[in-house]
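=== Discrete structure encoding ===
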Amino acid sequence: MSTRFFTLTRISLLSLLWAVLTSTALAQDGALINGQPWPDTNGRHINAHGGCILQHGDTYYWYGEQRPDRGFTMDGGITVYKSTDLRHWTDCGICLHTSSDEGSDIERGCIMERPKVLWNERTRRFVMLFHLELKGRGYEAARVAFAESESPTGPFRFVRSKRLHAQTWPFNMSDADILAAKQTNAAQWHEWWTPEWRKEVEKGMYLWRDMESGQMSRDMTVFTDTDGTAYHITSSQENLTLLISELSADYLDFTGKYIMLAPGGLNEAPCLFRHADDYWLICSGCTGWAPNEARMFKAKSIWGPWTQLPSPFQGTASGYRDMPADKTFGAQGTFVCQLEGRFVFMADVWNPRHLARSLHFWLPVHFDNEGTPFIPWADNWKQ
């Protein structure tokens, strides 16, 4: 057997296996089965990763990264699906396209991640925020981007991208804290992860380093509180620290009010929600595309103080690689939303060799007698 014939045969077999898995999931009346492909109404696996669900009227909209089967940069852009029953999803196409204009912030070949969409009642616009990396610069740019549309399915108009809070200190830092941060020097540290380096990070060393250019923004989410105020939560300072920032009234910029959360904690993939009088934040650690143990934080105010608690995940993902809770069942969170009266944790099971084929997990969030969230394994979000 020639090498070429063997390669083609292997590819054909893999494609056949994917088709069989997809049709198996489709046979389940369109419902998501965690650990299996989830086909849309055309029979294709839903290619909306790192995204969110937005309900508008009687319709749900699922936004996410339209990932290529190979590689990591974006040729298409951000995609949207719609559904009225949360089971059968119709592909509405790309709602924010990459640009063919050379030098554009969203030029084809850029990286667009973690898209989140908000409905702004004041402006009657849908506003999208996402993590943007400029073409050809890897993960160096670390920007947040804004886009808006009059329709939930787009097209969204790209507004701007930027770093965060240039020349602005977090309001939860005292004068003494600011003075300590100003005495750090990131350039002198050629060896990371030492106890001495970590202490400098906790003081705000990278906050100070980026004070003029603005703070980095990578993995991110958004949250709208009961009073309509919206917030941007992002992994910053080389993914070492989280920032929570208040958005302007039109959701297209920042007010300048923000805090640092867990400096030096190495958290990403934030998912923030509110249950009763408590704010909850679930994050992952930073291990690239590999799964790790989630972290959870609690606060009575979105401005803190925040207290770290153990991971909310429990048990083992039986039937799916037997992934344990301390690996978040092999997944990484992207959003917590309310669906049919319950909180649901949305996650991606990343497949870095074929990102378009990355699977989806939707897991119901339960609360114990003290109101603390816990998330056991379930075959689907209805359990």
Summary: Residues 188 and 197 are 10 Å apart (CA to CA). The domain at 268-383 is CATH 2.115.10.20 (Tachylectin-2; Chain A).
